[in-house]
Amino acid sequence: AAVQIVVAAVASYSISHYLLGHPIPFIAVAVTITSLGLTRDARPRRVFDNALGVTIGITLSELLVSVVGKGVWQIALVLFVVLVISRAFSANPAFAVAAAVQSGVVVIVPDPAGLAFTRSLDAIVAGVVALAATALIPRNPNRDAARERRRLFAAVNEGVDSVVDCLRDADEAAGELGLARLRRTQPVIDAWTTSLESALAVARISPFLRSRLPELQRDSRFLTAADLATRSLRTIARRAEFLVRDGVHRPALAELVAQLGTGMRLIGEEADDPQVGGAARSLLTDVARRLDPSLIVPDGHVTDQALVLMLRPLAIDLLVGTGMPIDEARGLLPVV
User: Fold this and answer.
1) pLDDT per residue over 33-50, tens digit each?
2) Domains (ranges, CATH) in the chain?
């Protein structure tokens, strides 16, 4: 990211200074840095929105200054107008703030020598260069996405292990721990979503990353499956913690949850080793075909049978995560 920003800022400065003849193209450098930023989200749309917000603020400010001049009350007027118009233009508060900051520069800093609206032209140059840098000097958002993916599957595995312990040993504390671990996965899912969406957006416009699109689209399938499965697992963890309050050990249910957890772990490993995908589908197919409450807990209470039913949508979500069509996955479940 630092290399990308530095190269883009120097390019913006060079175009404005040497090609357009602007003596001090401060705005060109500032807008380039602001547009690209160091945030996790490197999507071209975010870069475009940032550059557009700043350009609108500068252009509005230069228009107003040309009419009312500069001074204390003019600062108040320009800032107010730019904030209101920018806020109406975009629902993103950062958009209005970026526009207002640059409008302050226009009103307070002396005008550069040269043609009118020199700063607006510099801002346009900066926006174009920032977008070009996004495609031609792309960051590697896939690295961030891969890191978040591994964090998520590791956290889910820990949660599943706790739920298995809860059911097998009738350990209420393990159920509470499993639920707490699974609840902590949501920020990781959100971070992975942001990184993956950013990676997909950059790969679609970058000639250097376009070859990774199939890999990223596969990861998007993994993310959807992991998100849905994690939601189901939270519900299952709550139910398991409630069930074991009677002190009864439930090894059959624990084994089912453990097998589904193994299937999810294999899905996570498939991202690094595609050969693992077949093993995940094979295991999950076998589990799905056995998810019949009358077979798993024939003498169990209705609450035990209800837990088996809760595992059925989890199995379907994981099978879809392996690439199986949803109708085919549903067809594997025994009729209840």
Assistant:
1) 988 888 777 788 888 888
2) 2-136 (no CATH), 141-332 (1.20.58)
